[in-house]
Structures
1.
Amino acid sequence: MGSKVKSLSLLILPLAFSLCFSSLSSKPADPTPAPWPHQFHSIIFMNNNGSLQVVDLWYDWTNGRNFNIIQNQLGKLLYDLEWDNGTSYIYTLDSNKECRVLHFPVGVLRPNWLEGATYLGQQEVDGFLCNVWQKVDFIWYYEDVITKRPVYWVFYTGMTAHVMTFEVGAVLEDPKWQAPAYCFKESEKKENTVFKSVVSHGLSREGLMTGSFNVSMLY
Ligand SMILES: *[C@@H]1O[C@H](CO)[C@@H](O)[C@H](O)[C@H]1NC(C)=O
Ligand SMILES: *[C@@H]1O[C@H](CO)[C@@H](O)[C@H](O)[C@H]1NC(C)=O
Ligand SMILES: *[C@@H]1O[C@H](CO)[C@@H](O)[C@H](O)[C@H]1NC(C)=O
């Protein structure tokens, strides 16, 4: 009995102290980034050192899948379809019938992937007043102070992303999530160029986000 009371007070005392101190300090707690909605559609404008891309992003955590449809400026239209089991299909739908199948040690980016990011304060970007966070020296993330929508992010490489649309709850129809037949031929081995430009867009795999996974290892 006595030991139970003692262990309880061991728990409660530090708690009481920390509550006491936090109520004494006038500074409010740092804001935290809004978790991503479990399903959304977003059009993102990317700039990688002058190479421009428009990414049609269909984030679908509910169904364990994520789709980046990437238009390179006056160039290839690439499909980067990711499943939560770690398999990605990266392909074109033109006559070249290119496809790469990749296996990642991590699944689709979690809705709370920004948890644990360091708050850096407020800054205006693209004309929106934003809260800014940094995560593991990998990404700087800007979220609208009022609407809590993502506005912009920048990777440590200098690659930037501007969020043009953000439709919460939008879901791409099931038939569109089917990789083409030529992705399932084991003999297909395509050169790395397709793949390289896909990986360069960055915001897809959680490993890329957390820095546990080095993109250049794939080249
Ligand atoms: C960025 O582009 C410029 C001009 O094309 C090039 O000289 C430079 O090496 C590039 N920088 C990186 C980090 O790729
Ligand atoms: C992962 O799921 C996709 C879609 O269902 C499937 O095509 C692929 O073969 C799966 N990968 C593994 C390693 O099971
Ligand atoms: C990734 O790997 C490359 C080549 O091994 C290395 O030069 C680079 O510093 C690594 N980047 C990070 C962020 O670890």
2.
Amino acid sequence: MTEVFKGSFTQQEPIPEDGIAAALDVLRHGRLHRYNLAPGEDGEVALLEREFAAYVGARYALAVASGGYALATALRAVGVKPGDKVLTNAFTLAPVPGAIASVNAVPVFVGVTEDLVIDLDDLEAKAGEASVLMLSHMRGHICDMDRLMEVCNRAGITVIEDCAHTMGAAWKGVPSGRHGLVGCYSTQTYKHMNSGEGGFLVTDDDEVMARAVMLSGSYMLYGRHGTVPPEEVFARVKYETPNVSGRMDNLRAAILRPQLAKLDDQCAAWNARYGAVEDGLRGTPGLTVVARPEAERYVGSSIQFLLLDWPDAAVADVIDRCKARGVELKWFGGAEPTGFTSRYDSWRYAPSERMPKSDRVLKGIVDMRLPLTFSLDDCALIARIIRAEAGAVWQEQAA
Ligand SMILES: *Cc1c(COP(=O)(O)O)cnc(C)c1O
């Protein structure tokens, strides 16, 4: 009998009941705007900012309208100007080069390795070209952060981390987003906490946070934030920092606070699912499971494997066969981007030289989401289906 998987790759878990109750409270009192507070009230957004700052061990956290907004705000807050070059990953999601383009800066793409992290040799070679790196921990893969920070410190490069897929992750025990000057996170539905849309920016830097708060649209109400630098820091920036409105509201914050409280449990649940698929795929001929370094504490909310050096038609065949059995894989190497774009050559507003070593990797990356609505049995079944179909296509190729 041919096994077929019936689950949905886009169905997340419901919002926890305590989040629903907190959201109803906000709806009933009607004070959704973060600065609309009753006497003595802190507000859900300010409380969330305090809790998130404590969670990642940052001095300051700012809750905003989206992850992409956090990235653009970070670029503005560290002083990126129109025409400046910004180093970033050749393998990331469209909002990352998009944030750079939104401040009229120019992305300079750095290659990807077979471990799906930024190519640190390529970064070293390009380090002289820019003074800011927007580092994307794409699909949750964390590079050797010690070497990355050494390269960037030596070259005087400011690091902004895109942690859309690494909320809850760490390198050598240091939370992702806490190696660079600024860390940015997303709470969009497909990330690790779900408020539909939303994001965070964290830093220890007084000036960067004061500017980010002003940029996010605080008017002169920044004193109502959860974590803010002293007044004298605002005095230096408040008249010369534009309001680029992008605040979070109390309704989303109310939904997020209970999710933050159980984030570590959720991460463990993702990793159990990741492990089940990884175990099932290991040893499949022609298929490379991505190695995860000892120093990396990752969150397996998606899984990637490589079909390195397979002909395009064979990869497409694996994708089609798996789809026919209910397993939705995304192929980043397809000639035309479908659904979303993750490859430097898709962003034609930012021209780049070809990167043959990265192209080889990008052509072979296959990606799959692992929503927590999947059981461990589901994950084992999915792995059996991929293994069987990739194996069949592999044998056809050999014949
Ligand atoms: C989702 C995502 C973002 C942007 O987050 P939004 O909240 O959707 O704006 C940035 N980087 C990566 C790698 C992402 O996957």
